[in-house]
Specification:
Structural class: alpha+beta
Strand order of the largest sheet: 7-8-17-14-19-12-11-9-10
Order of helices and strands: EHEEHEHEEHEEHHEHEHEHEEEEEEEE
CATH topology of the largest domain: Jelly Rolls
Largest sheet: 9 strands, mixed
Radius of gyration: 22 Å
Helix content: 10-25%
Shape: globular
Number of strands: 19
Protein name: JmjC domain-containing protein
Distance between the termini: 9 Å
Organism: Skeletonema marinoi
CATH architecture of the largest domain: Sandwich
Number of helices: 9
Number of domains: 2
CATH class of the largest domain: Mainly Beta
Length: 381
């Protein structure tokens, strides 16, 4: 991923990073979630600008142009709230574009204070349609509909009575995918190597015993919707797997592991390799290079309603309910929830372990885990 890194001198450090981020995003007319500020000891601030779509091959950010825009605002006097009259902004290291090495980017992400990981995010609807601010703390809060102690599935059935029965997505054998037009959701059967699954390499207890100390990226239904990798919170895999046992067993929006496979230990990557190679190819003549993400979640909501490039999800453990619809179907719709769980989603399915779900380009989708689940997401690199 290509980032732009800027240096802002004489920043008003007393404001804190989240306030400076909001001012920078407003100055550049970009989303708050695409800006990270880090305060330095010399009263300067390092500003990192992210691509518009972290799941897409976005064009490189023109750091020189971004710096020029900020300097123009400083000179006009409109930046007095967050910079001094003698502040200047320039690309880091005098380069027009800076591409951070993956290891450095990971270190920057890991060192973000927890309280600042989601301060820049806008309100979004919770499952009941109530507007809330995403927070890593929200994983310990039950939704309004679940005011009594009930399981996540029982609560979701109040919004979607057909939670465990309705499924209108076509299924096709992996040998017949050449017949697909790839313009609507489809479940692909027999793509996952049965011999690999039978080895129980993804058994929950085994993962905890062998890789419990590994740091993974985590979030919840709300924090992972927009720029999820960046907003995610580091946590040991052991703590993430045990999070549902720490007094939040009835929450519908619990902790989700959402970690790029390439960040995992080499031994685990080797074990996952046959599965990543088993993903069906939409076009054998022009195969797409993909990046893979390991996802683990307990019963309850997965990532909230969002969209991105065409993707596949290989479910290896558990069952998931998917809600999907084309972007055009929601044009002009303001109140999406809880209606998205019924009439506002055109396609719904119950994905079983061993199946691969294809979600078309730019389709909105949301996931509900009917039980503990583990799988791998594949997106274009």
């Amino acid at each position: 991923m290509s980032y732009a890194i800027l240096t802002l001198t004489n920043a008003r450090k007393e404001l804190g990073t989240s306030t400076i981020e909001r001012h920078i995003s407003k100055a550049l007319s970009i989303s708050d979630s695409k800006v990270t500020a880090m305060l330095e000891d010399d009263n300067s601030a390092t500003i990192i600008l992210y691509p518009e779509d972290e799941n897409d091959a976005s064009p490189p950010i023109d750091a020189e142009l971004m710096a020029a825009q900020i300097n123009a605002i400083i000179r006009s006097g409109d930046a007095s709230e967050w910079a001094t009259p003698d502040s200047t902004c320039e690309p880091a290291d005098d380069e027009e574009e800076v591409s951070i090495e993956e290891e450095d980017a990971y270190e920057l992400w890991h060192n973000i204070p927890d309280e600042e990981r989601t301060l820049h995010l806008d309100e979004i609807p919770n499952p009941d349609g109530v507007m809330i601010l995403p927070s890593h703390c929200s994983s310990s809060v039950v939704t309004e509909i679940n005011t009594t102690v009930m399981s996540p599935c029982e609560a979701q059935m109040k919004r979607d009575p057909s939670l465990v029965t309705f499924d209108n997505v076509d299924r096709v054998d992996v040998a017949d995918i050449h017949t697909l037009s790839w313009d609507k959701p489809v479940i692909i059967a027999n793509a996952v190597p049965k011999t690999t699954c039978s080895k129980k390499i993804l058994d929950k207890d085994r993962l905890q015993d062998m890789y419990g100390d590994v740091q993974v990226r985590t979030g919840n239904r709300e924090t992972l919707i927009d720029n999820g990798f960046t907003n995610s919170k580091p946590m040991s895999l052991s703590d993430a797997l045990l999070s549902s046992k720490n007094g939040t067993t009835n929450t519908e929006c619990g902790t989700i592991v959402f970690s790029p496979v390439k960040e995992l230990p080499n031994d685990l990557i080797t074990e996952l390799s046959p599965l990543m190679k088993a993903f069906p190819c939409e076009d054998e003549a022009a195969p797409i290079v993909k990046k893979f993400t390991l996802t683990i979640a307990s019963e309850g909501f997965g990532i909230g309603m969002h969209k991105h490039k065409a993707a596949m999800f290989m479910l290896l453990v558990g069952k998931k309910k998917w809600y999907m619809t084309a972007s055009d179907d929601l044009k002009g719709v303001v109140d999406t929830h809880p209606g998205f769980y019924q009439e506002l989603s055109s396609h719904k399915c119950i994905q079983q372990a061993g199946e691969v779900l294809f979600v078309p380009n730019d389709w909105y989708h949301e996931i509900f885990n009917l039980e503990y689940t583990l799988g791998i997401q594949a997106l274009p690199e």
